[in-house]
Amino acid sequence: MERFIRLPHALFRGDPAWVPPLLAERRDALSPKKNPWFRHAEAAFWIARRDGRDVGRVSAQEDGLAPPDGDGARIGHFGLLAAEDDGAVFAALLAAAEGWVAGRGLRRVRGPFSLSINEQAGLLVSGFDAPPMMLMPHDPPYAGVRLEALGYRKARDLLAYAYDMEAPLLPAAEAVVGRGLPSGVTLRPMRRAALREEVAALIGIFNDAWAGNWGFTPFTPEEVAHLADELRPLLHEKLVWFAEVKGEPAAFAVCLPNLNEAIRDLSGRLLPFGWARLLWRLKVAGVRTARVPLMGVRRSLGGGLLGRVLPLFLVDALRREALALGIRRVEMSWVLEDNAPMRRLAETFGARAYKTFRVYERELAA
To answer: Per-residue pLDDT tens for 234-264?
Structure first.
């Protein structure tokens, strides 16, 4: 497993946009003892080796909470894909993953998900020159070409939007925000003293808001608690906002300082001095970039006026507070290509789609 985790560090160190992930974080994410995802899912891992050297890796997963497709087909997943630019290596890796999926009676494989659609999803197919934001994948241009040569086809594209926080609000957004909050609606920041409860509240809204969307897999209570603990160092009370309707949380938005900006030169290591550098950059010097990974409005409001305007007020609150903290550029990600309301929200604020991540799939022989 240590070789598996470290392999991308050797493969991609020459890519100026690649950011080495923290090795300790990767160990925890792939540990069944530490990651509660493994309580409802199973995974297997492979390394491709040639002439005594590791040249590629892949995982295969079956998630008991992942929904079947519209035709009722159960889906197996692959992920954590990293390999040299060699068709034979890609073919061997995907054959191993497909064999594991087929052996479990599944006839469709989809990915990459590392390990879940709620973690890193999709393969980068455009926007290679910009470094990834935290918890977003980065892949070489040849990876998609190699998958397509093996018969993989697009299932969905996921978009990342870049938002310049210093740009003036576009007239459409300014007109809505300028009218003030609707009657019965209040905005409030996260209460850090009740972090676990606050994270549980926002994930409750998230699970409700996105239920039924393509590929949606709900967070379990154990995953919510784990997420709260994992994100505790990054969550700033002024960068997590709730909209309450008649005193009840109905919508939320989360902005996270971009950890990748702070760890880019640490080579994945926090010892001996990485911890000190990371804490200084996050708590003292600050970072200039951030990511909005989670947002949601309860479905009971989704089709009405409140459902349309609450996200505008939430993003505007994040914008004001992020600017006060020195954050200048935010990525809103990811957004399904056919999620018209979310795309419209991002574009109303002047954000532009600058990266595309593709989820691939392939039918397996019976």
So the answer is: 889 999 999 999 999 999 999 999 999 999 9
Alpha-carbon torsion, ordered 109, 360, 296, 238, to 10 deg: 110
Task: Return residue ranges of the chain for CATH 3.40.630.30.
Answer: 163-356
pLDDT tens figures, 108-166: 999 999 999 999 999 999 999 999 999 999 999 999 999 999 999 999 999 999 999 99
CATH number of 2-158+359-363: 3.40.630
CATH number of 163-356: 3.40.630.30
Helix, strand or coil, per DSSP, at residue 23: helix
Residues 6+ apart with CB under 8 A from 85: 140, 142, 146
Return left, alpha or beta for 80; rule: phi > 0 is left, psi -120 to 50 is alpha, else beta.
left
To the nearest 10°, the Cα dihedral for 272, 276, 277, 280? 180
